[in-house]
Amino acid sequence: MANHKSALKRHRQSLKRRARNRISKTRIKNTVKAVRVAIEEKDATKAMEALKAATSVLDKAARKQVIHARQAQRRVARLQAAINKIEA
């Protein structure tokens, strides 16, 4: 472990960020899973509601730079395409 004062501070900061990022990534996984479950059940209205929540969570994670902005957009687009497929 580091001995310099600045390196110790950076280590403390990295631990805080890691904890915050883990919470955010878990929330992403859970909301996306809810959308996928609704898609598997062929329930378009439930899937759209879950997608709205997932979009919000993904966009917030992208804003906080937990995930890349394009990754968030790609995930939303793929979920939306799957919902459109069951609606058709």
SSE order in H/E notation? HHH
Largest sheet: none
Q: Quote the average pLDDT.
A: 95
Give the total of beta strands: 0
Number of helices: 3
Q: Which spans of ≥5 residues are poorly predicted at pLDDT below 50?
A: none
How many structurally independent domains?
Answer: 1
Question: Which structural category do the helix and sheet elements fall into?
Answer: mainly alpha
Radius of gyration based on Cα positions: 17 Å
- Net shape: elongated
Q: In angstroms, what separates the terminal alpha carbons? A: 57 Å
User: Strand portion, in percent?
Assistant: under 5%
Helix % is: over 70%
How does this model look, in words?
The protein is mainly alpha-helical. It has one domain (26-87). Helices cover 85% and strands 0% of the residues. It has three helices and no strands. The protein has helices at 5-40, 44-63, 69-87. Helix 1 packs antiparallel against helix 2 (44-63). The mean pLDDT is 95.
Summarize the structure.
The chain has 88 residues and is an all-alpha fold. It has helices at residues 5-40, 44-63, 69-87.
Output the keywords.
88 residues, mainly alpha
Question: Mind sketching the topology for me?
Answer:
Blueprint: H1 5-40, H2 44-63, H3 69-87
Helix pairs in contact: 1-2, 1-3, 2-3
